[in-house]
Every structure is written in C-alpha cells, then in structure tokens.
Amino acid sequence: MKSTNPSINTVLILGAGELGLPVLRAMSRQARLHHALNISVLLRPEAARAVSGPHRARRDALTRLGIAVVEGDLQQNSVDELSALLRGFDAVINCSGFVGGAGTQIKITQAALQAGVARYFPWQFGVDYDVVGKGSGQQVWDEQLEVRHLLRAQKATAWVIVSTGIFTSYLFDSGFGVVDAATKTVRALGDWRYAVTLTTPEDIGRLTAAIFFHRPAFRNQVVYIAGDTLTYRELADVMQAHWGVEVNRVLLDNERLQEEVRNHPRDVGAKYRLAFARPDGVAWDKAKTFNARQGIATTTAEQWLAQQCPTSQDG
To answer: What's domain 10-164+200-226+284-296's superfamily in CATH?
Structure first.
C-alpha cells in the first residue's frame, strides 16, 4: 500500500503550460526544503524529445529545476496506459487544462484512481462546480462535476480541489467580451451586482504548493483561493480609474446572453459569458480563502492591470 501524507516522496505534475509551469516552479522551490521529494512532469513524447526550439528550451529549464520528465499523452493514451504511468507516483497534480477535449478529465481521474495514487489534485482550478451544478451550458463544466462524483465515490485516493475562479488574464481578454479596451467598455454579465473571482497562474502555483505542503494535510476537500473578487460594477470602477476616462457600462442580461448563444452556437466566448452570468458558484469572499487565512498576498485585478497593461499615466 502506498504511503500517505506526510510520507509522499514522488510527485508527478501533468502538463507544463500556462498553469503547469508556475506549479512546477513553486513545487521545485518547496522541494529544496523537503530533500526526499522528487518531482516529475508528464510531457507528450514530441515535447519531451525536442532537440531545438521552445520545447527544448522548456525541457532544459525544467532540468535546471531538478524536475524529471516522463513521457505520455493524456489524449491518446488509454486509461490502462495512463494508470501504468501514474502508478509509480505517490501524488499527482493535474495541470493539463481542457486541451484533451471532452472526456479527458474523467479518463485521467479514472487512471489516477485505478493506479492507487495516494493523493490527487485534479484539474479543477476554476469555478465551484458543486454550486454551479449541471446544465450551465458548458459541457466541460458538467464533466468537472462528474470528476468530483468519481472522487467522492471512493476512499482509497485522497483528493484536494483548489478552486481559483477565472484566470485573471482571461477576464481582460477581448475574446471573453467583458472588458473592451478599444471602446473603453465594460460589460456586466447578468447583473452589475454579480461578482467574479480571479487568480493569476503564478499565484495559483504558489498557493497550490502551499496547500500541498500544509500541515495538517488537506484531505478530501475543496480549498478556495482568490487573487481578487469583485462585482462587475467594481470592475467598471477599476477600469475607469485605470483608463482615466469615463467607461461605457453595458449590461448583458441573461436573455441577451442566451440569444447570443442561440445565434452563435460555436462561439466559445458566448457560452462562457452565459455560464458566468450567475449570482453564485463563480465568486467567493476573498477574506475567507486559504490565502487570506494564511496571510499570503495575491495579485488583485488593479495590480495585474498596472503590471500587464500600464497606461501613460502609470509612467
């Protein structure tokens, strides 16, 4: 039988992308304080074997961090094949994202459970899928809820879900359609009083590592973190201060959002806008989060804007 916390010595992180790299860096820093801990990362064969270009540069950077590379393909490998890969590790942190398509997260979870992994952090770095429930209009969100059902239906593998809200950058991405820098417009989804929680991948990486090593260990529970939580009215005020001009404030009510989805069924942004137009499940009180209780500073929306989108008045 595999050891349980705090005797976890081998950790596999799935993916080295937008979230995987910050998690790898943070876990690597922690590993220096836990000398028995060995960290590995799962990469696709073509990425793991690259002899030049960005894939090779990334692999070299991982090697410098003392991270071993394991080859595998989350999309192409079967549950049995993935289970064989995961079986050699005490803990798995899934940072793969949704790139594998429908069913991939269920497959990975089944593989982790079949492998008897002692501790599993699933790809749940997002909204509160328990509160949102099924029928949000987002198929991947329905699948995320099913992942939770699988984890709760068993007792052999301890699991920890880190709820982060939306990635900070996505809230300001033009494709999401909430903040439009070109026209100095902020659009509220559903109601100006509705809120959204957001966290940067860098903060998620640091906090995931802190949660992983926290004592007493978290077990079979959801841990909430937040870089910021703000209503759409507060977001409009933040953007007005940032841009230094009067902001165009547009309310997209649920009827209009539903119409957009009907008229543009392939528009991912339209589906996300409708899914986020709700009073619960996509935002929580920052004061009650793990990072707030631990006194760990995180990047607010205002701070992110100052760093990533400096205005002339910022210098």
So the answer is: NAD(P)-binding Rossmann-like Domain (3.40.50.720)
Query: Residue 233, Cβ neighbours under 10 Å: how many?
Result: 16
Give the span between the Cα atoms of 89 and 13, in whole angstroms: 10
Q: What is the pLDDT of residue 310?
A: 79
- Reduced to 3 states, what is the DSSP secondary structure of residue 197? strand
What does pLDDT average to over the chain? 93
End-to-end CA distance of the chain: 59
Residue 225 has which token pair? 């973190």
Opening angle at CA 225, ends 285 and 41, nearest 5: 165
Closest CA to 115 of 85, 70, 75: 85
| Spans of the chain, pLDDT less than 50 | 1-6, 314-315
Give tens-digit pLDDT for 245-281.
999 999 999 999 999 999 999 998 999 999 999 999 9
Is the pTM for the entire model greater than 0.85? yes
CB-based burial of residue 217 (10 Å sphere; 0-12 exposed, 13-18 middle, 19+ buried)? Answer: middle
CB 72 within 8 A of CB 46: no
Give the C-alpha separation, 119 to 35, whole Å: 19
* Size (the chain), residues: 315
CA pair distance 108, 307, nearest whole angstrom: 36
Q: How far apart are CA 86 and CA 47, in angstroms?
A: 19
Distance CA 69, CA 300 (A): 34
The answer to whether residues 308 and 314 touch, using CB atoms and an 8 Å cutoff, is no
Of 133, 119, 194, 193, which is closest to residue 162 (Cα–Cα)?
Answer: 119
